[in-house]
């Protein structure tokens, strides 16, 4: 039986208990990297864009590895956010291929592009758990995992809309807590759909 959305969020809160500072610290590191890239892009636009494209895959992989570690209570260090650079080439290739496939689907219409993004959403998780997997294998495995789960994934994101509105007040500071919360919940979703899930907790709303 699939876990409910409230159960997935409850698992995330349980994983984050005692780890909020670390989770927010990882998110701040990602913001800092984005700010540095933004500064470079402001000063030297072409160079900034190139750097952004080159390292986005590694950053995405590192963040997913970090929050998946928190979800599984593996006590990852904040430096795990940089772990994606250890697989820089593979992370970049995955980022490029996902972007390319999603773009091609978007050419048909916006909705197919969104569906494609959901279809490939688990590829970084798969690469994190299987470092030796091929890029297309990770993408295809994500497609298999998301068969029958794309709507669940979509609705799971919608359950955070109310929190997103509240987090914007004041000055968006609430996103320091919300973004890690969403990321850890998504990690639990991955563990759920792949059959590696934690027992549900009674703390849910």
Describe the structure.
This protein is mostly helical and 205 residues long. It has one domain. It has helices at residues 5-16, 20-43, 45-71, 88-108, 110-119, 123-129, 135-145, 150-158, 161-167, 175-193. The two termini are 19 Å apart. The relative contact order is 0.17. Mean pLDDT is 92; it is low at 199-205.
Features:
single chain; 205 residues; mainly alpha; membrane; transmembrane; transmembrane helix; DUF975
Number of domains: 1
Uncertain runs? 199-205
Helix and strand succession? HHHHHHHHHH
The overall pLDDT, averaged over residues, is: 92
N- to C-terminal distance: 19 Å
**Structural class, judged by helices and strands?**
mainly alpha
Proportion of residues in β-strands: under 5%
The Cα radius of gyration reads 17 Å
Helical content class: over 70%
Tell me the major beta sheet: none
The shape, in one word, is: globular
**Can you count the beta strands?**
0
- Note the total helix count: 10
Please identify the oligomeric state.
Answer: single chain
What is the gist of this entry?
With about 200 residues, this protein is mainly α. The chain has 10 helices and no strands.
Protein topology:
Elements: H1 5-16, H2 20-43, H3 45-71, H4 88-108, H5 110-119, H6 123-129, H7 135-145, H8 150-158, H9 161-167, H10 175-193
Organism: Paenibacillus glycanilyticus
Transmembrane segments: 20-44, 50-71, 92-118, 154-178
Keywords: Membrane, Transmembrane, Transmembrane helix
């Amino acid at each position: 039986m699939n876990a409910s959305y409230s159960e997935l969020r409850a698992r995330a809160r349980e994983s984050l208990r005692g780890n909020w500072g670390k989770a927010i610290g990882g998110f701040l590191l990602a913001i800092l990297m984005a700010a540095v890239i933004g500064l470079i892009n402001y000063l030297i636009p072409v160079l900034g864009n190139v750097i952004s494209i080159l390292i986005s895959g590694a950053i995405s992989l590192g963040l997913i590895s970090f929050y998946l570690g928190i979800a599984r209570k593996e006590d990852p260090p904040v430096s795990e956010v940089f772990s994606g650079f250890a697989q820089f080439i593979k992370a970049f290739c995955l980022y490029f291929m996902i972007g390319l496939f999603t773009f091609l689907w978007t050419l048909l219409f916006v909705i197919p592009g969104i569906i494609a993004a959901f279809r490939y959403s688990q590829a970084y998780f798969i690469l994190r758990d299987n470092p030796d997997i091929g890029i297309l294998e990770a993408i295809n495995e994500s497609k298999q995992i998301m068969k029958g789960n794309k709507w669940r994934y979509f609705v799971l994101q919608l359950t955070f809309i109310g929190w997103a509105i509240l987090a914007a007040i004041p000055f968006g500071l609430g996103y320091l807590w919300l973004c890690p919360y969403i990321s850890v919940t998504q990690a639990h979703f991955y563990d759920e759909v792949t059959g590696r899930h934690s027992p549900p907790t009674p703390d849910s709303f």
